[in-house]
Amino acid sequence: MRGAVLGSGVAHVALLLILASARMATSVMIPGPETVQVALVDPTPLAPPPVPKVETPPPEPKLTEVKPLDDTGVRLPPPAPKKKKVAPPPQETPPAPEPAPPALPSAKLGSAGLKGDIAVDARDFEFTYYLVLVRNRIAANWAPPAGMIAQGNRVRAVVAFRIGRGGALSAVRMEQASGMEFFDRSALRAVVLSDPLPPLPLGFTASELGIHFGFDWEAP
């Protein structure tokens, strides 16, 4: 009985050993861990980008006075100073000619071939109408001698006189003789017979007015 039990126990133990060895013989493949490549990074911070250099203009060269020397090293004499341009003296402009005294153009007088003209001493006399009155008054009193008309010569005489503020005449004289005495006398007589003449214009401020009356005759 005991022998049967022992034999059964031995058989069980042998069976367990066989099973254990069979398990150990079976290889089980367990996948290994995957390999991952990792790049190592330097923990130091990245350097900042380079700052572009600003090109500064080169300083202007200093001008130094170079004293002239010849090839032998001997100092040369200084250059001759430049001559200053002298402006020409301003040209003197000739003075403008003084305006001629006012004059009344010659006009025909009473008789055929007779003409009379008037010039005055005052340069600012602008009253032409007054000169016309004077000429008409004297022309009415002038008549050339009959002999002048018969001879047919061309002659001229000028009588000068002054007119006061009220028209009275003074300083009557022969300024330019014609060369024919009887013609000159007729001109003087015409002026004297015209005294007094019309009063001077109110706008003329002088006390008197100088007149030069020309008597011209030419055969018709």
UniProtKB/TrEMBL annotation:
Q: Where is the composition biased (Basic and acidic residues)?
A: 62-73
Tell me the Gene Ontology biological-process terms attached to this UniProt entry.
transmembrane transport
- Which superkingdom heads the taxonomic lineage of this protein's source? Bacteria
Quick one: where's region Disordered? 47-108
* Stretches assigned to the TonB C-terminal domain: 129-220
Q: Does the keyword Electron transport apply?
A: no
Asked if the Swiss-Prot or TrEMBL record annotates the protein with the keyword Nucleotide-binding, the reply is: no
- InterPro entries per the UniProt record, alphabetical: TonB/TolA_C (IPR006260), TonB_C (IPR037682)
Protein name (record): TonB C-terminal domain-containing protein
The record's subcellular locations are: Membrane
Q: Which residues form a coiled coil?
A: none
Biased composition of type Pro residues is found at 47-61, 87-104
Q: Which GO terms describe its cellular component?
A: membrane
Q: What keywords is this UniProt entry annotated with?
A: Membrane, Transmembrane, Transmembrane helix
Give the membrane topology. Single-pass membrane protein
